[in-house]
Amino acid sequence: MKITASAVSLTVADPEASASFLADHFGFEQLMAADGFASLGREDAGVSVVFLRTGLASLPADQRDEHAAGLILAFVVDDLEGELARLEREGVTITMPLTPEPWGERAFQVRDPNRVIVQLVDWNGEVAPEYR
């Protein structure tokens, strides 16, 4: 098997709102769109993000009404504090403050209009001895 591209598909009530949020605040570009569907990408992201409207008949019946709950859309960035400051200036509500973990990860979270969690991460924190 050779993988030529990767995508994550999230089912939400309003795909256009989630697509706009990623475009406006995270620099994604809309690659394709139709009624109830939006596909976004960034050349440096390594993955496309697809939003599908809940209830779409093209989805299998057991998936149609599932919301993207419990998922975290995480992006590793090179300037975590800078991104946090930028998002705050843009009026984005930070739903989890910048949090260091003992294994060296640092992250903060926001939520899009459909409550999809977007987490920005770096690995520049102190690593506790038990994680070395």
TrEMBL record:
SUPFAM superfamilies: Glyoxalase/Bleomycin resistance protein/Dihydroxybiphenyl dioxygenase (SSF54593). This is VOC family protein. InterPro entries: Glyas_Bleomycin-R_OHBP_Dase, Glyas_Fos-R_dOase_dom, VOC_core. Transmembrane segments: none annotated. PROSITE patterns: VOC. It comes from Actinomycetospora aeridis. Pfam families: Glyoxalase. Residues 4-123 form the VOC domain. It comes from the Bacteria.
